[in-house]
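In the laboratory, one determines a bound structure by crystallizing the protein with its ligand and collecting diffraction data. In a computational setting the workflow is compressed into a single prediction: the sequence and the ligand go in, and a structural description comes out. We illustrate the idea with NDP.
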Amino acid sequence: MSSSNKHLTTSWGAPVGDNQNSVTAGSRGPTLIQDVHLLEKLAHFNRERVPERVVHAKGAGAHGYFEVTQDLTKYTKANFLSEVGKRTPLFVRFSTVAGELGSSDTVRDPRGFAVKFYTEEGNYDLVGNNTPVFFIRDAIKFPDFIHTQKRDPQTHLKNPTAVWDFWSLSPESLHQVTILMSDRGIPATYRHMHGFGSHTFKWVNAEGNAVWVKYHFKTEQGIQNLSNELAAVIAGQNPDYHTEDLFNAIDRGEFPSWKLCVQIMPIEDADTYRFDPFDVTKVWSQKDYPLIEVGRMVLDRNPANYFSEVEQATFSPGTLVPGIDVSPDKMLQGRLFAYADAHRYRVGVNHNHLPINRPHAEVNNYQRDGQMRFDSNGGNSVYYEPNSFGGPEETPQAKHAAYPVSGVADSVAYDHNDHFTQAGDLYRLLSEDERTRLVDTIVGSLKLVAREDIVKRQIGHFLKADAEYGSRIAQGLGLAAPQEV
Ligand code: NDP
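The predicted complex, in structure-token form:
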């Protein structure tokens, strides 16, 4: 055994005399409850897990930096984007969506792509996916959608009938379903995929002028994907394949990088654009709003401890800095509540005090107490506002930009219902080989659906996206000619 100059202690710091033999009444007698070291050790072990994230449970993370390569201060006053060459430290967490903490990395699933920028004006979280769109566009549908992605309550198995039933009854999902079933639905590694903010956000400059913005992280490793067959083999042999790949690449000094680009839309275009620009099931065509480079993200340091840095990392789309604001996207609006709420539940109300989440900027406020408040809790400083004791004060320039709203309070559906054009555009930009694999994957999945009416309803959507797309799927399933479907 190696000798150490450190004493093993209890969690209260007292030296431990024996960590191999519990205190018993003689060598054959029962264990004594007075062995508090044993009790504490067993009790702490029972509590090692925090609740698993309901979505995005399985993930991997890395530290790195963002460097500005182009001056976009005419669009945003965000301090971390204020000058070319400026570097901001960051932490990224990649993830699958549906699987549990121990599930396989190489499944067909969107990948989470969450970035925490530790800016001088507080943390900025960009919490997106590796896809530019999402399955639904109103947060009120999210729990139902995720139920269909999770396990059946009776069998505890994945349920393809539920998956396609929901999608076929939610045709706004068609665009994302097409992306998911295409080659990019199983990235080769976390390094070989793009990332997207997905939602529309608002940028505001120093003069108070605003634009709408969408974010694209373009992989500098190039896009690479896994075939269904190879992914299945890897899932069996090494369920942690993507986690291992990211760690090993950084460990070898092969630092993955992404170019960050944005699309900028003038505020007034939102009223007249041919798609609702706040509908997260749609992209803004790059022919209308070309990509503009902003900077480069590099991941160059592995976490020293998975639990403290990756499992306890908490990202929320509402973690914003001056110069960056939200849009009326209904999915984003729901996420502003849901993400922070998930963190309060699973990590605790003081999650932003943990080292991985703690801003590098100074934090001054009147929040006090709460579970696991492990810093000085504001000490004896003033704990309410307004006050006459020189407590922290507001920064009027940091107020959100004002904008007009109007309307009748009601449960209002989106007024844009073309779910088909952009899904069809994607199908039409694929090569013949890519189309064949897309159709084969969809056919393979639809074959598992227990009810033909669900399959036929879904084929109707594919047909509306592109007649060839829908026909090939119908043929692959041995169903009637499309016009009879
Ligand atoms: P463009 O031709 O200007 O852009 C096409 C986009 O598709 C590029 O971002 C390209 O990204 C991406 N792309 C290329 N090949 C594939 C593929 N095999 N699978 C998935 N994406 C691919 O056209 P539009 O902007 O008008 O968009 C047309 C369609 O492209 C959309 O309906 C959408 O489905 C898809 N798309 C659009 C994006 C956007 O933000 N406008 C983003 C991603 C996809 P790259 O070359 O880097 O791979």
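The chain is about 25% helix and 15% strand. Keep in mind that any predicted model is a hypothesis to be tested, not a measurement.
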